[in-house]
Amino acid sequence: MPFIINVHALTENKDETHKGEFYEDIATIYDEAPGNTIKIILGDCNAKLEKETLFIPTIGIHSAHKISNNNGQRLINFAISRKMTISSTTFPHKDIHKYT
């Protein structure tokens, strides 16, 4: 049975301390989940992910953005540290569906 975490990240203009606490909370919840389960994080991370070759194993090649914002970099770092894949940029979508 999958372990699902539903998130709604703070917007880009919020305080860095609060954004750090948000990702610490997610990390705690994620890390406390049983190790033998599929872990899924769903929701709005308020992140823009650039098409960076270095991060293709984590984010894929289908991002709509040319530059990552701070939230995007936080999301990438979190995903890399947990060996996760960000599926919204891994699989192709019509351009109209790439923006929220």
UniProtKB/TrEMBL annotation:
It comes from Aphis craccivora. InterPro entries: Endo/exonu/phosph_ase_sf. This is Craniofacial development protein 2-like.
